Amino acid sequence: MNRADVEIFGGGIFGLSIAYCCARRGAQVRVIEKRRIGAGASGGLLGAMTPHVPDAWNEKKQFQFDSLTMAAEWWGEAARISGVSPRYRRCGRLQPIHDQRAMILAKERRTAAHIHWSAQAEWQIIEAKGDWVPLSRTGYVIHDTLSASLNPSLALKCLATAVRQLGGVIDETRTKGHGADLTLHATGYEGLEELGQILNSDIGRGETGQVAMLKFDSPYTTQIFADGIHVVPHEGGRVAVGSTSQKRRLDHELAAWALDDLIQRAKDKIPVLRDAPMIECWTGTRPRAASRAPLLGPYPGRPGHFIANGGFKIGLGLAPLVGEVMADLTLASINRIPDEFSPQRVAERYRDSRHRQSITRY
Q1: Which segments in the chain show pLDDT lower than 50?
Q2: Strand partners of residue 206
Q3: Backbone phi, then psi, for 231, in 5-degree steps?
Q4: Residues facing residue 234 across a β-bridge
Q5: 245 in Cβ contact with 209 (< 8 Å)
Q6: What whole-number distance in Å separates Cα of residue 205 and Cα of residue 218?
């Protein structure tokens, strides 16, 4: 097989978004996936693409905002090339306001959104009216107009098909590449934990997550986020509910309990779902970087190698801009990535943290 310009290990949302962006720029791209496309955290059911709160603004929030606002056009072009719709829609999101302190904070964030989101999105405070609202003790909810959703499996299919249409190759059930000028690692929690061992740093780990899909026929499209639970309507009379987050792996019995608890909590917050049966569920392990930010940049100590990992819970929303900036970096040596995303910087920070903890302990 011919040598590629860029070889990407990992067929999740980061790996495929980068492959797509590189292929659009004319690079010869090969994706190596040891299982199947979407076998990891990217193949879940939730499909939420939501922003961080708009106050205490920083580079990470700006990066996420830029990615969310470019998503409609970016996914639209990928759908045009592939012929596969990811079912992207900018649907907005509702969150309950439970007390006066939360109301004050919501108003502060409304002002911050006006500054940082400009005219591209709003952070509104509205009355909690109708069936499709979370229970709110004040009678008011936050409505942000930036949140969006898509179908994760169709989004991955869209990108994989687009890569092939642009001349790229996707090899599934493979662990070894064929050689390339540049190599990128987007291998999820396994790659994150391997990197930590190589760098002797608590750089990140895998965390178990679960999502339930409920059968619920309704005209609603707006997402709900209530007390840590995401509720995301999808086409075909389905509503995704997620997600749990456990720092340790769960056995079958505990996983079943956690899923039942998740569903019950969602129904308690949104009574209209009380009779909705579960029709599908997903359990997987997501890559959580210690910094809670994605790790993007050169692979420490490996010239010609790069990392894109740690999209914990926000990978779908970050994918458009992650793809573009990593294509810039690998193909043109243009670095538009925030310093706090640097794998080397994060490794050094958490290596120092581990050292301080060992001194304190002993």
Answers
A1: 355-362
A2: 287
A3: -125, 115
A4: 238
A5: yes
A6: 38
